[in-house]
Amino acid sequence: MSRFVNRRRFLAVAGSAVAAPLWIPRHVLASAGEPGANDRIGIGYIGVGRRGNQLMGLPAEGRIVAVADVDRQRREGVAAKRNCRAHADYREMLEAGDVDACIIATPDHWHVIPAIHACQAGKDVYLEKPLTLTIREGRVLVDAVRKHRRVLQTGSQRRSMRYHRLGCEMVRSGLIGPVETVLIDNYPSPWECRFPGQPPRDGLDWDRWCGPTEPVPFHNDIFIQRSRPGWISLRPWSGGEMTGTGAHGFDQIQWALDADGTGPVEVWCEAGEFQAPVYTAPEGLARGNRLSSQGYRVRMRYANGIVIRLEPGESAAGASFVGPEGKIRIGNNTVDSNPPELVAEAAKDLKVRLPEIDNHMQNWFDAIKSRGRPICDVEIGHRSAILCHLGNIARWVGRRLKWDPQTETFPGDEEANRYLDRPRRKGFELPEA
Q1: DSSP labels, 214-243
Q2: pLDDT value at position 227?
């Protein structure tokens, strides 16, 4: 924003020094519903695969000025379609003066490093969920956002959907009495793979794609997000659907319980240590899904006694909240209750009203202009991601764990604390805030 201010100040001074009238084309001037050129926010994209392209419907005051991707075909194709620059290295893009903010839609293992670099370069950030690959990454990212006074919106779009908001308002308003239990899907943890190598895609920098992880031979069913099985289901590139879809569900739990600044104090897996399946060839997802959900059911407990139970078949995008007066279930932008009349009567009984945000991207843009915090600020995204990571760690360790949401550690538990972060390849270390 300082660049906007300086540019406007320069134009004002220059204009005052001109004696003759200055003609300015109408399209440069701001008008109702059509921001002027100097008001538009230049957006650069880091990662332009499936999700990156889905996020290109910007508000009127935004303009796409550049894209960066390790895949030449992707970046050049999108750049031609969007009439913008293409960069092989996002760091070069971050140096550009016309990039005011960036949208990061990379695989999970490439979320935090470019986000920190963007903050250091003075860019605001929209970062897809899950915010992080490890718990420590999240705290370093929060520190970077605060230190550099950036605006970071987590891509947990359900915070900007009407019925998710209504369901959380119903829970907070006490329509079912004090919440006792929360039910959510028993998301699969990540699996392992040892795929044979394939000829690399033309123009893809596979070593750069591997980034902080140890390089493995290229395979298209790793490169594609949800393939057979795809990177989103595999270590070391993701936390599996526990962090993929789980980032939505756990975020709804945190919001409904008014727990954005804290988290559970205990977590465990009922069946002990989880042995992840190892994929040696592409195949369907049924085997890994079955192994994750059968028996390896995760439980979490908050300090106030509320217990989260991960159960097969429960809501994945939201959660079910159970109290002495009934049950409220939040689905994929749906809400229903038992007894059913709770939903019908909610409008007149709600005591808690949450921010009415219906456009997640617009909310980010509004925060960029006001320098306020968006509806899913970095701290919120970090705290919700922690629950995802706790679910995986409970399975990997296979025993009951104490968790301190203030220090973000497992007190006195050296084995569990090893999972708070992970090794990174030389040259791809986690930047200091």
Answers
A1: PP----HHHHSTTSSS-GGGBTTT--GGGT
A2: 83
C-alpha distances in Å from residue 193, one per residue of 87, 222, 283? 31, 9, 11
What is the Rg, in whole angstroms, of the alpha carbon atoms belonging to the chain? 23
pLDDT (mean) for 195-215: 96
Separation of alpha carbons 358 and 360, rounded Å: 6
State both tokens at 298. Answer: 């995760």
Q: What is the C-alpha separation between 129 and 248, in angstroms, rounded?
A: 8
Contact of 130 with 225, CB cutoff 8 Å:
no
- Taking alpha carbons only, the member of 227, 220, 225 closest to residue 204 is 220
For residue 254, give its domain range: 162-354+378-420
The single-letter DSSP state of residue 61 is: T
The 3-state DSSP class for residue 29 equals coil
Find the CATH number of the domain harbouring 42.
Answer: 3.40.50.720
What pLDDT score was predicted for residue 198? 96
Give one DSSP letter per residue of 81-146, joined into a string. HHT-EEESSHHHHHT-TT--EEEE---GGGSHHHHHHHHHTT-EEEEPSS--SSHHHHHHHHHHHH
Q: Taking 80 as the threshold, does the pLDDT of residue 200 lie above it?
A: yes
Looking at the fold, whether 138 and 260 belong to one and the same domain comes out as no
Rounded to an integer, what distance in angstroms lies between the CA atom of residue 427 and that of residue 43? 27
Residue 96 tokens, joined:
């550009």
Could you tell me the pTM of the whole model?
0.90
Q: Edge-to-edge, what's the strand order for the sheet holding 181-185? A: 335-338, 326-330, 319-323, 181-185, 307-311, 298-301, 266-269, 401-402
> Of 106, 129, 158, which residue is a domain's last?
158
pLDDT 10s digits, 260-292: 999 999 999 998 889 888 888 887 766 656 666
Three-point CA angle 323, 242, 424, nearest 5°: 140
